Amino acid sequence: MTSQPSLMKLLWGQAGYQNKVFFRNPTAAFFTLLFPLMIFVVFALIFGNEYIEELGINVAQYYAPAMAVFAAVSATYTNLAVTTAYQRDEGILKRVKGTPLPPSIYMGGKILSAIMIAIISVVIMMSIGVVFYGVNIYAATLPAVIVTFLVGVGCFAALGLMVAALVSSGESATAVTNATLLPLAFISGVFIVPSEEAPAWLDTVANIFPLKHFVEPFVAAFNPLNQGSGFDWVSLGVMALWGAVAIVIAVRFFKWEASPGSSRKPRRGKKVAAEA
Predict the structure, then answer these.
(1) Fewer CB within 10 Å of terminal CB in the chain, N or C?
(2) Other Cβ atoms within 10 Å of 257 Cβ, number
(3) What is the mean pLDDT of residues 23-46?
(4) C-alpha–C-alpha distance, residues 76 and 213, integer Å
(5) What is the average per-residue pLDDT within 55-64?
């Protein structure tokens, strides 16, 4: 009599499978891992790693963590929303639900994989920043960096699943994630350094959404002029609230079968992610 694999083993197996699926998709790997890094390098070349008087740090010291956040959000929010919606279109989710694998393990594996990819993207970004651009990492604020990162990726993973639950197709998920992430990135301090000259209403809008509350404390933890532990409890609370609401909506509206007219024939050789 063979013993059943533990739930934890099933979860790690699913995460490993989803990692393989991700890295076999050159487009997803490029836009998640390499595209943010390219933007960081381009910004460093354009601005020459000059001193930012408003913040008291160099260009690289600001943009390395800022683009690390952008990569982490791409790995969780965009990645989960788009891949989940497309898998539903292709009938993969429907077939997975018909297997003995618990649906929660399958979705948990997708979330864990997205967080793993986010960790990889942040490590790559910060390593390049430290080695080639003199970016400093401070031990005093490292706990705040880790906590902010975990709450942030958890929030955006939940938001990604919420988008997948609400849209009707993979194409819609792509449109929604791009239409929400990119504009917010511009007003939340990802691409543009915050300035007092910016209109006040832009800052008000940015404060409503979780991206700014991910970027600001994460970047601030790498600023040597900031005193204290680096924890921004208000920002952590805002991200936690957004994540909690997103989870409720995702659970309430998530569908395992494609909407009429949105399903597509699965590509030849496509395997159902139901490994133990």
Answers:
(1) N
(2) 12
(3) 93
(4) 16
(5) 90
- Stretch 197-208: mean pLDDT: 90
Q: Residue with structure tokens 């609400």?
A: 166
Is pLDDT above 80 for 261?
no
Whole-prediction pTM: 0.90
Cα separation, 209 vs 152, in Å, equals: 12
Name the CA radius of gyration of the chain, rounded: 20
Of the candidates 118, 182, 105, which has an alpha carbon nearest to the alpha carbon of residue 152?
118
- Sign for the pseudo-dihedral over CA of 26, 18, 161, 145: negative
Question: pLDDT > 70: what percent of the chain?
Answer: 93
CB 74 within 8 A of CB 117: no
Question: Measured in whole angstroms, how far is the alpha carbon of residue 145 from the centre of its chain?
Answer: 15
Report how far residue 18's alpha carbon sits from residue 29's, in angstroms, rounded to the nearest whole number.
13
**Alpha carbons 29 and 156: distance in angstroms, whole number:** 18
Smallest Cα–Cα separation from 211: which of 249, 238, 178?
A: 238
pLDDT at 28 over 70: yes
The phi, psi pair for 52, rounded to 5°, reads: -95, 105
51 Rama sector, left if φ>0, alpha if ψ -120 to 50, beta otherwise:
beta
Structure tokens at 56: 């008291």
Amino acid letter, 68: A
Give the integer Cα–Cα distance in Å for 275 and 113: 14
255: Cα separation from own chain's centroid:
22
Which tokens belong to 126? 């910060």
User: Does 4 have pLDDT greater than 90?
Assistant: no
